[in-house]
Amino acid sequence: MSGDLKDYLKTVVSHVDTALDDYLPFPGEAPGAIHEAMRYTIFAGGKRLRPVLCIAAAEACGGTETLAIKAACAVELMHTYSLVHDDLPCMDDDDLRRGRPTCHKVYGEGMAVLCGDALLTESFTLLAKSEPSEGYTVGEMISELAVAGGSRKLIGGQVLDLEGEGQQLSKEQLLAIHEAKTGALLVSALRLGGMTANASAKQLAALSDFGYSLGLAFQVIDDILDVTQTTKSLGKTAGKDVAANKSTYPSVWGLEESKKEAERLTRDALNALEIFGERGVRLREIAEWMLAREY
Amino acid sequence: MSGDLKDYLKTVVSHVDTALDDYLPFPGEAPGAIHEAMRYTIFAGGKRLRPVLCIAAAEACGGTETLAIKAACAVELMHTYSLVHDDLPCMDDDDLRRGRPTCHKVYGEGMAVLCGDALLTESFTLLAKSEPSEGYTVGEMISELAVAGGSRKLIGGQVLDLEGEGQQLSKEQLLAIHEAKTGALLVSALRLGGMTANASAKQLAALSDFGYSLGLAFQVIDDILDVTQTTKSLGKTAGKDVAANKSTYPSVWGLEESKKEAERLTRDALNALEIFGERGVRLREIAEWMLAREY
To answer: How many whole angstroms from its chain centre is CA A232?
Structure first.
């Protein structure tokens, strides 16, 4: 990673963290238990990929971090809720997340369900406080996020994932799951950033293409890492997909083919950025950094 | 109930059901399982109290059913999600709801969590499609619903409820739980209806007062019925509060005092409607009907 990108990420992530700290209810506010749980899961050392992408997309369209930061934080709240619920015993049953015990391990299952519910609801409370841009109302921004998080996308992907457990899926089924489960929210993060910057329809379409390829590339790499890395280096349980007999890119395509697919998707993602010219440099750097993980 | 009110309720409920049927994804749409679960829980024979109140509040402020119906359905989606999650084994662990097996009994726990998530998300998708009124943006309407559904209100009430299980609560604690768990969403349904009708600040405040007293009165009566009625007549497990050693109005105040409290709250609710004059008649009739259950 270039020193310049490193500084950029550090600055943006620190602004996002400060904003989240401002927006979330205080831990001492009643009922204390849920506000503590919300903060435990939000401030768990995540990389804030989605907020960073949201803000960089706004900048690529001529906007600013200031205008995009509420949308950026809203997307992070939605992402975090989905992790909290996916980790539940009745879903993926995960004990570790980002190297720490998952929400239900610390606060119990009932509280983890409510914590996820609250983060999801808060994402809309926050987005509703956004300023509209010239071309987009707050209602349109909310619609963008709600559709991406809905039963056809984010939640639908988790449904397909649950249903596919223990089955050998086809390449198409696997793509459909990841497009819904990972891709939709990345795309939405980028588009929301664009909307705060009054992006043109062409720019929004380019952000969608970029996010689609980036999301899939990221997931392919994630699946590869689950096979090739240790629990410690991942900060979450490694080899879990294989243990759960879950279909992954390596299990469907083989490891070598998966690596080639990751490279192809990465190229597609970068090509989609061409229309942004110089302003798209930051998005390109972030994509290269996201996809350059050791495998 | 007057024949006139009966007709009104029948008509409004049928319009709300048709609208919900239009708005929700088709049961056959992929992933089919979750769309089936969403419809199972939404079309479970609920009384649609919140949508009816939303629409009647709009009319009390000079608005129309047509302008209020998206908000009315959005509130019902949020209410239903909260029931689905509250019924989960890790929460209230309820097998019956409106006389039918609860969502997780039919579709499994993982799907019930996701079904609730999807209903919650869909409530915002739908509300985002509303028309703004002269005085209120769609963002303000979303904020109204999201705050009522958030960790300080609807969800917070469930947290307090979980924490209070097995403990003898004070009068104040019990009020706080019910104001958050039942009252906030009733208030929000009414205020949203008012907002679609471009209500004045005074009218919104009156709707808040009305909803607050109505919600508490309704809960007191619900608690009384849990003691005095059978499972069959309630359509849900009777005597459950006592069995769970849960604090209720009868257990804290005694049965007679609870009945008096219900009457006092009912009077407060009706008094709050005075500023609406003739236009408030429908809200008054609905309140009298809601609170006139046999106990």
So the answer is: 22
Q: Which of A25, A129, A130 sits opposite B151 (nearest CB)?
A: A25
Q: Determine the straight-line distance between the first and last CA of chain B, rounded to whole angstroms.
A: 16
Chain B CB within 8 Å of residue A138 CB? yes
User: What would the pLDDT profile of A258-287 be if each residue is shown by its tens digit?
Assistant: 999 999 999 999 999 999 999 999 999 999
pTM: 0.94
Residues of A in contact with B129 (CB under 8 A): 139, 143
Residues on chain A touching B150 (C-beta within 8 angstroms): 118, 121-122, 125
Which positions 143-172 of B are in contact with A (Cβ < 8 Å)? 143, 146-147, 149-152, 155-156, 158-160, 162-163
| pLDDT tens digits, one per residue of A27-83 | 889 899 999 999 999 999 889 999 999 999 999 999 999 999 999 999 999 999 999
The CA-atom distances, in angstroms, between B51 and each of A267, B56, B72, B191 are 50, 8, 4, 12
Where do we find the tokens 């970029």? Answer: A210
User: In chain B, where are the structural domains located?
Assistant: 3-291
Residue A139 to residue B143, Cβ atoms within 8 A: no
Tens-digit pLDDT profile for residues B212-265: 999 999 889 988 988 887 665 666 666 666 666 778 899 888 999 999 999 999
Under an 8 A CB cutoff, do B110 and A162 touch? Answer: yes
Q: What residue of A is the nearest CA neighbor of B112? A: A90
Longest dimension (CA), chain A: 52
Q: Is the ipTM of this complex over 0.90?
A: yes
Contact of B35 with chain A, judged by CB distance below 8 Å, is answered with yes
The answer to whether residue A27 neighbours chain B at the CB level (below 8 Å) is no
Distance of alpha carbon B205 from its chain centroid, rounded? 19
- What confidence tens digit (pLDDT) does each residue in B72-97 have? 999 999 999 999 999 999 999 999 99
Strand partners, A100: A97
* H or E segment and range at residue A106: helix A103-107
CB B169 within 8 A of CB B245: no
Mutate which: A151, A163, A175, vs B, most B CBs within 10 A: A151
Any residues with CB less than 8 A from the CB of B219 and at least 6 apart, and which? B178, B182, B183, B249
Answer yes or no: are the C-beta atoms of A56 and A196 closer than 8 Å. Answer: no
- Please say whether the dihedral angle defined by the alpha carbons of residues A263, A264, A268 and A274, taken in this order, is positive or negative: positive
CATH number assigned to the domain covering A3-291: 1.10.600.10
- Interface contact flag, A151 B122, Cβ < 8 Å: yes
